[in-house]
């Protein structure tokens, strides 16, 4: 009977040790999850910082390039303005020179009507009329 009692106590003690080990394992897993979440949050913050600095660097490069190309240089902007005005003047002169010709071509095409009926159309109409009777 003592052996049974001793075996039961060992069994109960073994179960308690297993339960304690399971509790410790659950705590370790929970701590690992929290740690992983914190590491992910920290990595995201670091990535956001890197992205922000990269974006700022590229914006500075873009603005520098933009100023060098278009520049506050009044000479290049006045040259562009002069060129644009010259092209506009040339286009207006071309329009004025060709407006009459274009109108004549349009009127000629509008008034040009062919009154001849193709033979195939006549035959088709005749067949349709014969079939209708």
What does this entry look like structurally?
This protein has 133 residues and is an all-alpha fold. It has helices at 2-69, 74-111, 119-132.
Question: Topology, please?
Answer:
Layout: H1 2-69, H2 74-111, H3 119-132
Secondary structure class reads: mainly alpha
Please report the distance between the alpha carbons of the first and last residues: 123 Å
Rg measurement, Å:
46 Å
The 3D shape can be described as elongated
How much strand? Answer: under 5%
Q: Main beta sheet, described?
A: none
Residues in helices, as a percent range:
over 70%
Mean pLDDT: 83
Instruction: List how many beta strands DSSP finds.
Output: 0
Helical stretch tally: 3
Order of helices and strands: HHH
The low-confidence parts are: none
Supply the key terms.
single chain; 133 residues; mainly alpha; 3 helices
Condensed summary:
The protein contains 3 helices and no strands. By secondary structure, the chain is mainly α.
């Amino acid at each position: 009977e003592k052996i049974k009692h001793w075996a039961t106590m060992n069994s109960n003690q073994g179960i308690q040790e297993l339960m304690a080990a399971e509790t410790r394992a659950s705590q370790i897993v929970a701590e690992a999850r929290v740690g992983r979440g914190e590491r992910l949050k920290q990595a995201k913050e670091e990535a956001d910082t890197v992205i922000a600095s990269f974006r700022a660097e590229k914006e500075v490069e873009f603005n520098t390039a933009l100023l060098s190309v278009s520049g506050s240089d009044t000479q290049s902007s006045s040259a562009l303005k002069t060129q644009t005005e010259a092209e506009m003047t040339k286009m207006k002169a071309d329009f004025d020179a060709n407006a009459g010709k274009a109108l004549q071509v349009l009127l000629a095409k509008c008034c040009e009507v062919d009154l001849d009926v193709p033979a195939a159309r006549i035959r088709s109409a005749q067949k349709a009329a014969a079939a209708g009777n």
